[in-house]
Amino acid sequence: MSYVIGPACIDVNDRACMDVCPVDCIYEGDRKSYINPAECIDCGACEPECPVDAIFVDRAARGDETRTLFLEDSRNFFLEVLPGRTEPLGNPGGAGKVGGLNVDTETVAGYPG
User: Fold this and answer.
1) What is the DSSP-derived secondary structure letter of residue 47?
2) Which residue, 36, 61, 96, 109, could crosslink 71 as a Cys pair with Cβ 3.0–4.6 Å?
3) What is the pTM of this model?
């Protein structure tokens, strides 16, 4: 189980969740942030801090088309080669090591805002 950031974060991205994450597993894209499912320790500290209720546990995606889309999109952020990069981000071991990435997945980049 890990946590996922959904569409309510797009173009809001206030970073409150990043400030409370004890393992630094929340990475900043251009329009929203992404939780690395391989680095998340499932502590849940981020969920109550989100001012727009964008964060949900991955199992909450079952049966919900939008949440399922963003669950898959969250994985893709770390597994696919993002625009302007030469290789997937993977699991760098903390967002502080890479800083703001200023790029999103195709799903988020093209999401209406």
Assistant:
1) G
2) 61
3) 0.95
